[in-house]
Write a structure and sequence with these properties.
Helix content: 40-55%
Strand content: 15-25%
Distance between the termini: 23 Å
Shape: globular
Bound molecules: NADP nicotinamide-adenine-dinucleotide phosphate
């Protein structure tokens, strides 16, 4: 008979690792990204999120390289469709069925998988949620190319996706200081599927040191380009911010990224430490 997971194992299963940002650029060496993914897996992390838009496929290639060295069925592989990026400055939406099919073919090739476990629409405008797109996603699911269908957004496109009844995964900012209408939306999403938190560390950013890591440099560049979400007025520690998202914010999981092993270890500790591990299983 299988044993119930220890508190800590349950806690760490709620932390995902994002292969994004600097992990798709020369700021981080490909071997360093692969090593970080392997370390995260060794610490118990099982969800790995990426997108073709991160480094125009480079982040997916690096995740594919790591996946080739990990047990096939254990990690949950999450990627996205609909946002095409050629560098930091140029981004276009591509949610037409033809483009979506082509994008998934490319992702499967780079990830070295026959199936993407979680597929998210990457920041779609509400107008992109057409019947043709939904039919394409459902067809891909029946074909076995994708497992669950999700949406990643900060705005009312989340409500539009919820209304279709086809989405079971909702990736959205979850942190203190969000407006009440977004918090109410998170409640509705959670009632319909799995709520996956991003931008969780936003309240801790005021306390981050000067941008000495590739990750911090990347975040600074995003802020300068207006791509980062707002920094909440209530500062928190990293541990508080992660646990706020999981307990007060109601997230089923949190995806964070880092370029530093000590930060990865800390984030794993933060969701599994004795004080929080109990709360996590409650
Ligand atoms: N934000 C979005 O628009 C978005 C959209 C779709 C999906 N996602 C997914 O969400 C993932 C997370 O992205 P996010 O934007 O939400 O960022 P985040 O994980 O909240 O923050 C990442 C930043 O926090 C720093 N950091 C991480 N752990 C730390 C620690 N223990 N102490 C101090 N600094 C720490 C990292 O720098 P270091 O490298 O120095 O640790 C990096 O600058 C992405 O990888 C992606 O998979 C995000």
């Amino acid at each position: 008979m299988s044993q119930p997971l220890h508190d800590n194992a349950v806690g760490v299963r709620r932390l995902g690792f994002g292969v994004s940002g600097p992990h798709g650029t020369p700021l981080v060496r490909p071997e360093a990204t692969v090593a970080m993914i392997m370390n995260a897996f060794a610490m118990g992390v099982r969800v790995f999120d990426t997108a073709p838009a991160y480094g125009a496929g480079e982040a997916e290639r690096r995740l594919g390289e790591a996946l080739a060295r990990l047990p096939t069925y254990e990690p949950i592989v999450s990627t996205k469709v609909g946002l095409k990026s050629s560098g930091l400055m140029k981004r276009t939406h591509e949610f037409e069925p033809e483009n979506v099919r082509r994008s998934i073919e490319g992702s499967l090739r780079r990830l070295r998988r026959s199936r993407v476990d979680w597929l998210f629409l990457h920041g779609p405008p509400t107008s992109a949620l057409t019947d043709a797109l939904l039919k394409t996603l459902v067809d891909l699911k029946f074909k076995g190319d994708i497992g669950e269908i999700g949406i990643c957004s900060r705005d009312h496109a989340l409500d539009a996706a919820l209304a279709t009844g086809q989405f079971t995964l909702f990736m959205a900012p979850v942190h203190i200081g969000l407006p009440p209408n977004h918090l109410a939306r998170l409640e509705r999403l959670k009632a319909a599927g799995e709520l996956i938190a991003i931008e969780t560390l936003a309240p801790a950013k005021r306390r981050f040191p000067a941008p000495v890591s590739a990750g911090a440099t990347w975040q600074l560049a995003r802020s300068l380009l207006g791509r980062a979400g707002p920094v909440p007025p209530t500062p928190m520690t990293v541990e508080e911010a992660l646990n706020w998202a999981l307990h007060k914010g109601g997230a089923n999981r949190v995806i964070t990224t880092t370029t530093r092993l000590d930060h990865l270890e800390f984030n794993v500790y933060a969701v599994t430490s004795p004080s929080t591990g109990r709360l996590i299983t409650a």
